[in-house]
Amino acid sequence: MKKILQNNLLIILGWLFVVLGIIGVILPILPTTPFLIIALAFFSKSSPRFHQMLLNNVWFGPTLKQWEDKKTLSRKIKYKAFFLIIITFSISIAILDSKILLQLLLVGIAIVLLFFIWRIKEEPLK
What we know:
By secondary structure, this protein is mostly helical. It has 6 helices and 2 strands, in the order ααααβααβ. The protein has helices at about 1-25, 35-45, 50-55, 60-70, 75-95, 100-120, and strands spanning about 70-75, 120. It has a two-stranded parallel sheet. The longest helix is centred in the N-terminal third of the chain and has 25 residues, at about 1-25. It is globular.
């Protein structure tokens, strides 16, 4: 019974992150790839069918396969992530113009995110 509940929870979480990834395609303020990588991880532990569905997707499949096989991202994907983080955090910081502590917190979070993305290995050039 516990295994079934855990499996269903992982599937629900996987679909939640797929939906967030799809919203990220439409709204430039949400990143798509990280959400789909998280969904892929949840599906790998709960549903081989949904896992394979993501890997075979025409738009996201190649990036997700690359991540799953080599734990790398292309330079293009990394640059898109950098750009989105810088733009969205800059807008948020500008909106909070009189709240210096929140601005500093956002700057710190952005730096941490950029650092982690920078450290992800890049796909070797062919």
